[in-house]
Write a structure and sequence with these properties.
The complex is a heterodimer of chains A (145) and B (302). Chain A is α/β, with parallel strands linked by helices. Chain A contains 6 helices and 5 strands; from the N terminus they run H-E-H-E-H-E-H-E-H-E-H. Chain B has 302 residues and is an alpha/beta fold. The chains are: A alpha/beta (145), B alpha/beta (302).
Chain lengths: 145, 302
């Protein structure tokens, strides 16, 4: 075990395979988001089948999950709740990135433990800044500005 | 084969609007009855209109069975349920379908509006057999009727439903709003397209999925609460201008369009104006289909 990895305590004794997991049923949106965060130095993967997301998160231990809301099979709010209810994934930071622009949905997501909510399409720098903010305690903010 | 019968018991959005201004189209909130030949009735939404439907069902000497689909739980879609008398009659049987919330199950969601604080009769007092079945986005089969549920762009979990039987289909979308598209519409594309530009201009409007959901429907009942100039002031209120409704009806190649969920501030003459403009827009699209406003008591057969 790499005891120098600051994520160890946060991620229940297991290291992350990558920084960010994007859960998004629109493959074009998922791919664009992956390219964007990679340009800023993060490692990222995406999945388009939300029903497999929790298992993927448990296995891969991303530090941040970027989550769409309206997805077939398992919607983003329920997935957010599952991530935050599970002892081995509750430390995962969650950014909701959805086309739904309603304050009531945003409040509900934050109540369920989401760490941030952005309405699509948002400014790239806002999303990147939030990711850095969430990761900063873990990774010393050494990403490309 | 006998036709599918659709009857409108409540057509108004947001809040009941009784009075002379709404006499022709009606002031009761959302409730639509869909009757498939030889199958227990389907009821979509339980706004104040369901009370009148209940009175008709009470007149039946036989036990009644029905499937009640709730698009979501805003007042105008559930407020009639405590006044639905057939649910209090022993021997009747109703199954209520709707979404759980992450921390509140469907039974509790419905029961809460009959808490003694709000209503003097508890849901446990319903003498009929009343069952609750939580649903998510997907497809279920009920007595040979295929029911597809799809999340719409409206606060919270809000479904649109597509009911298909015998090669015909009815789509009910009472509350839905276009996704935001301001970046693509208003911003000039930069000469050098960076990755950031592409990310910021990408609109995941889910329209393709919506069009697929309504495609070829024999009847589309869709939210048409606003004129475009009203909508500009009410973006994020969860409802559509008629322009959007007409445009998706054309894209989806539906065979008949019903304008639904009339704004509580729209009197009959205003609804007439919206119908005229909707028909004009259909003509501009060169797409000739029947287009009418939902009207309390009206029946459509397909």
């Amino acid at each position: 075990m790499d005891v120098n990895n600051n994520m160890v305590g946060m991620m229940n004794q297991k290291t992350s395979e990558y920084d960010i997991l994007i859960v998004e049923d629109n493959i074009e949106q998922a791919h664009l988001t992956k390219l964007l965060v990679e340009e800023y130095g993060f490692s990222a993967h995406y999945i388009t089948e939300s029903a497999k997301a929790l298992e993927t998160i448990q296995h891969s231990r991303p530090s941040v999950v970027i989550l769409d809301l309206m997805m077939p099979e398992l919607d983003g709010l329920r997935l957010c709740q599952q991530i935050k209810d599970s002892d081995d994934t509750k430390g995962t930071k969650i950014i909701i990135y959805s086309g739904k622009m309603y304050e009531s949905d945003q409040r509900k997501a934050l109540e369920l433990g989401a760490d941030a909510f952005f309405v699509k399409p948002t400014r790239a720098n806002l999303l990147i800044t939030k990711i850095k903010e969430l990761l900063h305690p873990l990774q010393n903010g050494s990403y490309k500005n | 084969m006998d036709p599918i019968k659709i009857k409108f018991w409540g057509v108004r959005g947001s809040i009941p609007t009784p009075g002379p201004r709404t006499l022709r189209y009606g002031g009761n909130t959302s409730c639509v009855e869909i009757t498939f030949p030889g199958i227990p009735r389907f009821i979509v939404d339980a706004g104040s209109g369901i009370r009148e439907l209940g009175k008709e069902l009470l007149a039946s000497p036989n036990p009644e069975k029905g499937h009640i689909f709730l698009s979501h739980f805003h007042w105008d879609h559930i407020q009639g349920l405590p006044f639905f008398k057939p649910a209090f009659k022993p021997g009747n049987h109703f199954i209520i379908y709707g979404s759980d919330e992450p921390n509140v199950d469907l039974t509790k969601i419905i029961s809460m509006q009959m808490d003694p604080i709000y209503f003097p009769v508890a849901i446990q007092d319903m003498g009929a057999k009343v069952e609750f079945q939580s649903i998510q986005e997907g497809t279920i089969d009920i007595d040979g009727v295929e029911v597809q549920s799809r999340y719409m762009n409206h606060p919270g979990y809000t479904f649109g439903f597509r009911f298909s039987h015998g090669g015909k289909s009815v789509v009910y979308i009472s509350d839905n709003e276009p996704f935001r598209q301001e970046y693509t519409q208003s911003e000039v594309q930069p000469k050098t397209v960076t990755l950031e530009d592409r990310f910021e201009s990408f609109v995941d409007n889910k329209e393709e999925a919506l069009i697929e959901f309504i495609a070829g429907a024999d009847l589309l009942i869709h939210d048409t609460q606003y004129f475009p100039e009203e909508y500009e002031q009410r973006v994020t209120w969860g409802h559509s201008p008629y322009t959007y409704t007409v445009d998706i009806a054309v894209k989806g190649q539906v065979k008949q369009l019903i304008l639904f969920h009339h704004d509580p501030d729209h009197d009959d003459a205003t609804v007439d104006k919206m119908v005229d403009l909707s028909r004009e827009r259909l003509r501009k699209h060169n797409y000739a289909i029947p287009c009418n406003p939902a009207q309390e008591g009206a029946v459509i057969e397909i």
